[in-house]
Amino acid sequence: MFRTFAIAASVTAIALGAAQAETLDARIHTAAVKACAPEASTSTPASYYGAITQTCIYRVSKTAMINMQAKALEKTKSSTAGLSN
Fold first, then answer.
1. Are 32 and 62 within 8 A, CB to CB?
2. Is residue 35 a part of any domain in this protein?
3. Is residue 67 scored above 60 in pLDDT?
4. What is the mean pLDDT of residues 74-85?
5. What DSSP line would sit under 35-60, residue for residue?
6. What pLDDT score was predicted for residue 1?
7. Is residue 25 part of a domain?
8. What percent of the chain has pLDDT over 90?
9. CA 46 to CA 74: how far, in whole Å?
10. φ, ψ dihedrals at 82, nearest 5°
């Protein structure tokens, strides 16, 4: 009985973690799209418009994910530092 409960809890935790990661990715992407809107110019040809916007979105999203991962790692290190003493 306990084993079944533990397996169900593990599967639920994994599913929730994956859903939160997808949500974070979507939120970061949405914020990057909004942040890059001013860089898009109507005076440039349409072929440039897409490339400039996509490059900006990629750059902003990548930087935000790196920052979030660094903060999460730092938080994990600080919360486990007390356990090793």
1. no
2. yes
3. yes
4. 73
5. HHGGG--TTS-HHHHHHHHHHHHHHH
6. 47
7. yes
8. 13
9. 42
10. -70, -25
Sequence-separated (6 or more) residues with CB below 8 Å from residue 42: 49
Assess if residue 84 is contained within a domain. Answer: no
74 token code pair? 């730092």
Cα–Cα distance measured from residue 58 to residue 69, given in angstroms and rounded to the nearest whole number: 16
Tell me which amino acid residue 84 is. S
Our count of domains for the chain comes to 1
What one-character DSSP code corresponds to residue 44? S
What pLDDT, in 10s, does the model give residues 9-39? 454 555 555 556 678 888 888 998 888 887 7
Structural domain of 25: 2-78
Q: Looking at the domain assignment, is residue 6 inside a domain? A: yes
pTM of the model: 0.59
Q: Could you give the CA distance from residue 54 to residue 15 in angstroms, rounded to a whole number?
A: 30
